[in-house]
TrEMBL record:
<dbReference type="InterPro" id="IPR001315">
    <property type="entry name" value="CARD"/>
</dbReference>
<dbReference type="InterPro" id="IPR011029">
    <property type="entry name" value="DEATH-like_dom_sf"/>
</dbReference>
<feature type="domain" description="Death">
    <location>
        <begin position="143"/>
        <end position="186"/>
    </location>
</feature>
<protein>
    <submittedName>
        <fullName>Death domain-containing protein CRADD</fullName>
    </submittedName>
</protein>
<dbReference type="Pfam" id="PF00619">
    <property type="entry name" value="CARD"/>
</dbReference>
<dbReference type="InterPro" id="IPR000488">
    <property type="entry name" value="Death_dom"/>
</dbReference>
<dbReference type="GO" id="GO:0042981">
    <property type="term" value="P:regulation of apoptotic process"/>
</dbReference>
<dbReference type="GO" id="GO:0007165">
    <property type="term" value="P:signal transduction"/>
</dbReference>
Length: 214
């Protein structure tokens, strides 16, 4: 009997993250994204608003990788992604991703008792100085915000500094997610996209320490 497809596991997310640089260099989002729509992993809106809004082919592939992680609850999406890589000239890369054993231990975990705590504006401020300013747009996309949302936040807050823009992006995400905007969920978003936003491990550890002690 065939094994039932499952959602993407944390280990599989780490495999993709560990190979993100190679994926962006070697994979053309345009070659494979329509197949994800055909199988209902992505919607047409996902492709148009998220992937195709990237200004370069590399940026589009970065957005596809982010979208994969956002859709990781869909059964079979990890294997489907690797199958598409293999079908489109990247069989060796698919094999490398599947066999990757490297974990991501650069960032500390949050205590169990804090995982279900709601994100506060104070938490957002602690996390607002943990990655470079040039990744503002990428970070907003990681939070599931549209380009229009991100542009409005930048226009309204850039005069107060980059950290204020990042703080505001997190609070917009928090307000839209309501009771599901937990510290664990935000922590996972930071970790799952750490390479894309060049998350600073030391700064992030210090921010988490402040959150834990607050």
């Amino acid at each position: 009997m065939a094994q039932a497809a499952t959602s993407m596991t944390p280990e599989q997310v780490k495999k993709i993250k560990a190979n993100c640089e190679d994926i962006v260099k070697r994979v053309q989002a345009d070659d494979i994204m329509d197949y994800f729509v055909d199988e209902d992993y992505f919607s047409i809106e996902d492709v148009a608003e998220n992937i195709m809004s990237g200004k370069t082919p590399q940026h589009q592939t970065e957005r596809l990788v982010m979208l994969l992680q956002q859709k990781r609850s869909k059964a079979g999406i990890f294997d489907f992604f690797l199958n598409q890589l293999a079908r489109h000239g990247n069989k060796d890369l698919a094999k490398k991703i599947r066999e990757t054993e490297e974990g991501d231990d650069r960032f500390p975990e949050i205590p169990e008792k804090l995982k279900n705590k709601m994100v506060t504006e104070r938490y957002a401020m602690h996390l607002s100085k943990t990655f470079p300013a040039q990744h503002l747009i990428t970070f907003g996309v990681c939070l599931g915000l549209s380009d229009v949302d991100i542009s409005h936040v930048k226009a309204d807050n850039m005069q107060y500094g980059v950290s204020t823009v990042i703080w505001r992006l997190i609070t917009v995400w928090k307000n839209r997610n309501g009771r599901s905007a937990t510290l664990e969920k935000l922590h996972n978003l930071f970790q799952n996209n750490s390479d894309s936003i060049e998350l600073n491990p030391e700064a992030y550890a210090k921010a988490l320490d402040k959150i834990i002690k607050s």
